[in-house]
Design goal:
Length: 185
């Protein structure tokens, strides 16, 4: 059997918190020695590929920025293929950065999309605006369905829940386990 690509997760596979999982260095070295293309996927939409490369470097793992593919990157890639270029975003820097790179205007005036990622500043006003826009026709897109991160930190799925309850509309999740992120990577 010929392996054409290696697609790998981060948490619990290569890193645990910010520490390399035992054997991760040997695994990555073997992939590089054999010249196999490596894609490291993550549902975490709040870090850029550069942030992740720095995180791996701090854990003693040398992985180029180009190997990382985040749910924010997949979301921007998905949205580039859709009609409309205006988005109301519940998310932070990395997601917003990817959307700007894809040519989107971030706005709270008649958006085509409501895009939910992760943020520590989620509040009533954001929920209200997002629900209003979704109820009035904006397409509801989310970076991933994860309900919580490490230590029960609310994640994207949990942030989508009130919008879904208010509007009765479920988001389209781009990240794992959606096949979209794999196809996009």
């Amino acid at each position: 059997m010929t392996i054409k690509n290696v697609i790998c997760d981060i948490d619990g596979v290569l890193l645990h918190d910010n520490t390399a999982v035992p054997g991760a260095d040997r695994f990555l070295a073997r992939i590089q020695e054999q010249g196999m293309p490596l894609v490291i996927l993550t549902n975490y939409p709040s870090q850029t590929a550069q942030d992740l490369a720095n995180r791996f470097s701090a854990a003693g793992l040398d992985v180029p920025e180009s190997a990382f593919f985040t749910s924010a990157m997949a979301t921007a890639d998905f949205l580039k293929r859709q009609e409309g270029k205006k988005a109301y975003v519940v998310g932070e820097g990395a997601l917003i950065h990817e959307l700007y790179k894809a040519g989107f205007t971030i706005t709270d005036i008649n958006p085509d999309f409501v895009i939910v990622g992760e943020t520590r500043s989620y509040n009533w006003d954001m929920i209200h605006k997002a629900a209003f826009f979704v109820a009035n026709g904006a397409r509801f897109i989310a970076t991933n369905p994860d309900n919580h991160g490490h230590g029960f930190t609310p994640a994207c799925g949990a942030l989508c829940a009130p919008i879904e309850k208010i509007t009765g509309r479920k988001p389209f999740y781009v990240g794992k386990p959606s096949p979209w992120i794999i196809r996009s990577a």
